[in-house]
Amino acid sequence: MSSKNQNYIRVRYYNNHMLQVRPVPLKMDKRKYSKDQLTFASKEVRSGSLRQHGAAKKYNIPKATLHIVVEHLVSKDVHFEKEKRRLEKLLQECFSDEEDVNDFEPNGTSDEFKPESKNEFNSDSSEYYPCKKKKVLTKILKV
């Protein structure tokens, strides 16, 4: 592959009911079009008020460039939703047993959560945690 071809990406979009593959320069939107044009056009397409060709004509952007931006934003939204569902699932796993949550008393009156000596507190036992699944909690906190 030559260096000239590396600057291009293949984009598919509908034109006259035919699926076409057309090379589009990757740096095109950075050079010729302002960020505001692309932002407003992609917002209108994603909200459903305009189709891609209408937004491209209104903001004077090539359809293929607008298509790249919209597809990129949609894929980011899908990734965000997947991460959100994954975290919700982890939280449900962690607090699925109501006994674990109800046994924890933050004022410290419960003997179950008090360490008897410093060595026991430093040990890696799960009896001092409100949720017995420590690994799930640490995963959630790292994210």
From TrEMBL:
<dbReference type="InterPro" id="IPR009057">
    <property type="entry name" value="Homeodomain-like_sf"/>
</dbReference>
<feature type="region of interest" description="Disordered">
    <location>
        <begin position="100"/>
        <end position="125"/>
    </location>
</feature>
<feature type="domain" description="HTH psq-type">
    <location>
        <begin position="36"/>
        <end position="70"/>
    </location>
</feature>
<dbReference type="GO" id="GO:0003677">
    <property type="term" value="F:DNA binding"/>
</dbReference>
<dbReference type="Pfam" id="PF05225">
    <property type="entry name" value="HTH_psq"/>
</dbReference>
<dbReference type="InterPro" id="IPR007889">
    <property type="entry name" value="HTH_Psq"/>
</dbReference>
<protein>
    <recommendedName>
        <fullName>HTH psq-type domain-containing protein</fullName>
    </recommendedName>
</protein>
<feature type="compositionally biased region" description="Basic and acidic residues">
    <location>
        <begin position="111"/>
        <end position="121"/>
    </location>
</feature>
<dbReference type="GO" id="GO:0005634">
    <property type="term" value="C:nucleus"/>
</dbReference>
